Amino acid sequence: MAKALSRFKIMLVKTYGSAVCGVDALTITIEVSIDSGTQYFVVGLPDNAVKESLFRVESAIRTAGYRMPRQKIVINLAPADIRKEGSAYDLPIAIGILAASGQINATKLHQYFIMGELSLDGALQSIKGALPIALQALNDGFAGFVLPKANAREAGIVNQLSVYGMASLSDVIDFFNEKSAPQPVIVNASKEFLPETNAYEHDFSDVKGQENIKRALEIAAAGGHNVILIGPPGAGKTMLAKRLPTILPPLSMQEALESTKIYSVAGKLTAKQALLTERPFRAPHHTISDVALVGGGINPQPGEISLAHNGVLFLDELPEFKRTVLEVMRQPLEDRMVNISRARFAVAYPASFMLVASMNPCRFVNTFILKKNA
Q1: pLDDT, mean of residues 164-173
Q2: Were both Cys, which of 18, 108, 113, 279 would link to 245 (CB 3.0–4.6 Å)?
Q3: 124, 150, 176: which is the final residue of a domain?
Q4: Total number of domains constituting the chain
Q5: Are strands 24-35 and 11-21 parallel, antiparallel or unpaired?
Q6: Rounded to two decimals, what is the model's pTM?
Q7: What is the DSSP string of 293-313?
Q8: pLDDT-based confidence at residue 365 (cuts at 50, 70, 90)
């Protein structure tokens, strides 16, 4: 009986993760305390997705062949004044519970960032913001970053950090128990980046004729000027706009990292993508809302103008856009940055883009052209 009581003495274990704010990350300490009692508590300003993590964590732990302690478990996400959002805290919480209950080795936990969403069967799902989180781990002096395999190449761009892509909770447990020694994921940015810098689907050389407008777009591309194309339907406005990024200078490595961080935070990178190699081209529909264009929302996300950072934002049928949507672009066009301030948060997203708009002539001009051609 004495052994059983000593087994359940108060245990405190810390794991480390991150919260994404804007396009940067902040270090979060996940503290797990196990004491006598029967309830689970998650504190530190978590949202509903974080609170629900305990159900996913319990199922994943059982599936992996371990036990969920039937005691009082307090999980604190520090600093407590920063709101924690999303399901990426599942993995550090699960590892913290297993370490605090003495089921896995906790000696190496302080060396690693741990992030990942857990399925009920223990599989790891992808997360958002893997690249800025990896950069934050490196800046804070951590030795490595444990995350889902789907995000490993994205975080592997940070070569000075040991990045381990895992498929399941069992793989992570074996790693910390030193039962397995996976190789860190290393992405050669120069080797993968340089050959793909001009691999566009469309090319400016495809355009035949249109010498005047091509000359105008070349001048605009050279100086980074904004452009508006006015012409009847079928004149080639959209075709030319889509091919404009192909005559812009290739992305530099710094620009590629900036754009990749934005796409990482927005969750728009695929498992195969490690780094954006083409200048972004965004063409939102004219029914887009103000928030979708500039960013923000309840859970702040980059808008279309930030997704077009270092690239081209194309507004087709400009007069069809709402006036308020066009007005909110005034400040970002001047400052090359959009600052979003709300009662509970304030974030800044980069928004250095080339604006290209198109529109048809007014009805009178259009009618005149039709009559003249007739």
Answers
A1: 96
A2: 279
A3: 176
A4: 2
A5: antiparallel
A6: 0.86
A7: HHEETTTTEE-HHHHTTTSEE
A8: low
